[in-house]
Design goal:
By secondary structure, the protein is α+β, with helices and mostly antiparallel strands. Bound molecules: 2-acetamido-2-deoxy-beta-D-glucopyranose (NAG) (4 copies). The site of one 2-acetamido-2-deoxy-beta-D-glucopyranose (NAG) has 2 residues, from loops. This is Tail specific protease domain-containing protein.
Length: 855
């Protein structure tokens, strides 16, 4: 296979020095060859052949002409400010000013803390956006390390499952072509030539490149994002009077105060409001433009401030923004900025851009790969401060999963013999009639972590509702997520049966995914006897083949069998890195995603050998790429440490009756359904055709709109996880010659020179086995049967919304007079493709302005 083009940016010798390979080899050596692997020669001779958002917690009835609730408008009308180019003369003081604001803010608290032990330290201080940008702009660029970052990161990005599809996206996918590797080469050229002469401009350009791929599993958050955040002046909201008429854009607080009498926004910075938003939303993480549009706005269930407020974390290129209203007045508002910090990344000792570069930008672990006891720490551990508008909520859920797997270690790969009896006492798994999210009434039952709430609408056909805005707990340290989720569902469905409740609404609005196991669990509880088949494949470029070879060496048939026997003999809890390091290695390899041992092919057989699993197979037709065999999870290896209903210790569950008929189920989304949510939605769609779907919101174009519009990728892998695989390879196959070393350096991900708090790629593509083109579902946007715009009807009161939807679908007298597009009765569904963006509007891409600023 071809070598990665971006690698040719540097001479091989320089690359090796820069990438610091020797410490990796040394590490393997220091740890001894504890693993028995295929002879190294075989490996090399036959190498694999290829805020202050006060509004977010209020519930205000915008239905009423006179609103209830108190809202303080956070906006100030101020002076006019033109575009701003930092002047080098401020570079020496910009960071010092922010740092001293930080220090003085903290000192107030530490003096208070001396007398009051309950003082909670702040984690941010408001600063002027211009000063924040001056400081970021003053960070010097290190050309050599930036080029090393580019060539190093390209090896991570090669694992992005859709990298070739993105270059040449299928028709009707609404994805603009993005050539990631080609763009990296261009970035490298701009760095070399001096077009990019400031470090922050490189960071912004790199993040924008990934964001244009609209894959919520693909992203990277540099350390600098933890120190400075930019914000819009307030949140916007998009509301139609009746859910059918096209919506208009309002300032959230205006709408809350004046209802539909409020003046709506007609222009932003002089551009037509919809054109401006279309442009702005193009950096959102959903595949569907309608879901990206929804993400711009504040929402209530689940609560979010919207990207107009969070600005994707970017300096918007200037300090003010102007809005023109339907009453013809134009007002200018200040953007906001915050200096922020956490225990790992803070402003201590930062007086200059150089300090910022040394303390924050650089990855201290670059020249030495961390030891295996700290597996997964690519860079400094920097928990993101809690921020309601934080980017990458999709990733955070998935990352939680990764952490949890590390904590429980082998628990993720146990076998059926042992999985039943929990060794600890279970806590109370479900709660009844307790507060849940921000709904006016608590659900009949919810799990202990508040992941899912089950309601019965007393007044409306006794409809049952499952509200699930994420497939994982908000708390990173939550326990018993699967057990609690299972118990809540079982309790809920038993009660539905007792009541004779026949209709079910499933609300997945805002659901960006979470634990894969929970998506399957929900499906199996709904359809106990049905197969839960969800097929995927991975990209099998050279790096993936190397990793699969290493996984195979560790988790061979024999080693897997031994592991199973060992678990049966000594117990799951005794498999650990101290007493049974080899068994732990096998378990980790099985769970790495590169092993065939916990997969099944479309004939429900484990692929018989490495070659059968990894191929590489070529894809006929659309793209020129190589991929693995199409497989599904083997649920005899429980996901996330527990059995899914219908498998293993819960296999008898498959005999249960289904709690609802499929024509009595309505799936409600806002298009942002991503990751695990798409696995669940796809199971409903493929295996249970006939389930009705409703999607809320989207661009005011009266076209069909996708009900599942987030990333369809079915597993995310963090850079930490990929680096762990690299370490495994080097330990198994320490290179013996320079050529071998070079081969590895050219093909596997290694430490990167710049630190980041989060980075990941989409690893698995979901594929329908019956699709002859085998196109990843990322590129299939399928319209909901019924589309409704957001309207005051139920906007702040989901219980009410569910009732009205239930009447629309199954009863009479709904407040909704039908759907804006499509319908919910038989044969009324939307058909056709989701329409493309509105006519291309020639507007200045203000987002790119800072990029074009002469250095
Ligand atoms: C027009 O509407 C805006 C936004 O609600 C408001 O701030 C402004 O005062 C209004 N102007 C007039 C003249 O009514
Ligand atoms: C249904 O009625 C019960 C009993 O009065 C109440 O606790 C519950 O909150 C009601 N549910 C809804 C969704 O209104
Ligand atoms: C596909 O990629 C391979 C490897 O880069 C290249 O040799 C081949 O020419 C490409 N084929 C097509 C049809 O583009
Ligand atoms: C079940 C659960 O986690 N409930 C929590 C919901 O959020 C409120 C407010 O943060 C908590 O007090 C509850 O414990």
């Amino acid at each position: 296979m071809r070598t990665i083009a971006a690698l040719q940016l540097l001479s091989a010798a320089k690359l090796i020095a820069a990438i610091s390979f020797p410490p990796l080899a040394a590490l393997a050596q220091a740890q001894g060859d504890t693993t028995t692997a295929a002879p190294i020669q075989a490996f090399y001779t036959a190498p694999p052949n290829s805020s202050t958002s006060a509004s977010s917690t209020q519930t205000v009835n915008i239905n009423a002409a006179t609103p209830t609730g108190t809202v303080t408008a956070p906006r100030t009308v101020t002076y006019t400010q033109t575009n701003y180019t930092p002047n080098p003369s401020v570079f020496s003081t910009a960071c010092a000013e922010i740092s001293s604001s930080y220090a003085s803010r903290l000192s107030v608290y530490s003096s208070r803390a001396s007398t009051d032990s309950t003082v909670i330290y702040p984690t941010r201080v408001p600063v002027r956006p211009r000063e924040a940008w001056d400081c970021l702009y003053s960070i010097p660029i290190n050309r050599e390390l930036t080029l090393e970052f580019i060539s190093g990161v390209s090896k991570y990005l090669q694992f992005q499952s859709t990298i070739e599809y993105l270059k040449n996206p299928p028709a009707n996918s609404l994805q603009e072509p993005v050539d990631i590797i080609g763009s990296l080469e261009e970035l490298a050229e701009q760095v070399r030539s001096g077009d990019i002469a400031h470090h922050i401009r490189f960071e912004v350009a790199f993040r924008k490149l990934l964001q244009r791929c609209h894959d919520g599993h693909l992203g990277l958050s540099f350390n600098s994002n933890s120190l400075i955040a930019f914000r819009g002046p307030f949140s916007l909201i998009s509301i139609s009077p009746d859910a059918i008429e096209k919506p208009k854009v309002y300032v959230e607080t205006d709408l809350l105060e004046f209802g539909l009498d409020a003046a709506y926004v007609t222009k932003i910075d002089g551009y037509d409001v919809e054109a401006w938003i279309a442009e702005f939303a193009d950096y959102g993480s959903s595949q569907s433009p309608d879901a990206r549009y929804n993400d711009v706005f504040a929402n209530r269930d689940p609560g979010s401030d919207g990207t107009f407020y969070t600005l994707y974390g970017w300096y918007p290129g200037k300090n003010t923004i102007s809005l023109t209203y339907s009453n013809s007045s134009t007002h200018q508002y200040d953007y906001l900025a915050y200096a922020r910090w956490n225990s790992a990344l803070n402003w201590d000792g930062i007086r200059t851009g150089e300090d910022f570069y040394e303390n924050i930008v650089l990855n201290p672990a670059y020249f030495q790969v961390s030891s295996s006891s700290q597996e997964g720490t690519v860079n400094r551990p920097a928990p993101e401060p809690k921020d309601p508008g934080a980017l990458y909520h999709v990733h955070k859920h998935s990352d939680k999963k990764a952490k949890r797997q590390m904590r429980t270690g082998i628990a993720t790969t146990t076998t059926s013999a042992l999985r039943s009896a929990p060794t600890q006492d279970l806590p109370q798994l479900v709660y009844f009639n307790e507060p849940y999210m921000r709904h006016r009434v608590g659900p009949y039952v919810q799990d202990l972590n508040g992941i899912i709430g089950g309601y019965f609408l007393n007044d409306t056909l006794d409809t049952a509702v499952l509200d699930i805005s994420s497939f994982s707990a908000a708390d990173d340290d939550a326990e018993f997520e699967i057990e609690g989720f299972q118990a809540a569902l079982t309790t809920f469905f038993a009660e539905a049966s007792r009541r004779g409740s026949k209709k079910l609404v499933i609300d997945v609005r805002g659901n960006g995914g979470g634990l894969i196991a929970l998506g399957f669990e929900l499906y199996k509880q709904l359809f106990p006897a049905a197969a839960a088949r969800s097929y995927y494949r991975i990209r099998t470029h050279e790096g993936a083949q190397i990793f699969a070879t290493a996984a195979e060496a560790l988790a061979s048939d024999e080693a897997t069998k031994d592991l199973v026997e060992l678990i049966e003999r000594i117990g799951l809890e005794n498999i650990n890195g101290d007493d049974t390091p080899e068994a732990l290695e096998v378990a980790l390899a099985i769970n790495s995603g590169f092993s065939r041992q916990n997969t099944l092919d479309i004939n429900a057989k484990t692929p018989k050998d490495l070659k059968t699993w990894i191929g590489p197979y070529t894809i006929d037709g659309l793209v020129n790429d190589t991929v693995s065999l199409l497989v599904e999870n083997n649920f005899n290896f429980p996901l996330q440490g527990s059995d899914i209903s219908g498998f293993g210790s819960r296999s008898e569950f498959a005999n249960n009756p289904k709690p609802f008929e499929k024509e009595d189920i309505l799936l409600l989304s806002d298009g942002t359904c991503a990751s695990t949510c798409t696995i669940f939605a796809e199971l409903l769609k493929r295996e249970q055709a006939g389930i009705s779907t409703v999607v809320m919101g989207g661009r005011p174009n009266d076209g069909p709109s996708a009900h599942v519009g987030g990333t369809h990728g079915s597993r995310v892998l963090t850079y930490a996880n990929l680096l762990r695989n690299s370490r495994r390879v080097v330990q198994l196959y320490p290179p013996e010659t320079e050529a071998q070393e070079e081969y590895l350096v050219e093909n596997i991900p290694l430490a990167l020179p710049f630190g980041f708090t989060y980075a990941a790629i989409n690893f698995r593509d979901s594929i329908r086995p019956e699709d002859e083109t085998a196109t990843p579902l990322q590129f299939a946007l399928e319209p909901a049967d019924c589309r409704l715009y957001f309207s005051p009807i139920g906007f702040t009161d989901s219980v009410y919304l569910w009732g009205e939807l239930s009447k629309l679908k199954w009863g009479t007298g709904s407040e909704f007079e039908g759907c804006a597009v499509g319908g919910l009765q038989k044969g009324e569904g939307s058909t056709g493709f989701v329409p493309d963006d509105p006519e291309v509007v020639e507007i200045v891409n203000y987002i790119l302005q800072p990029m074009k600023t002469p250095a």
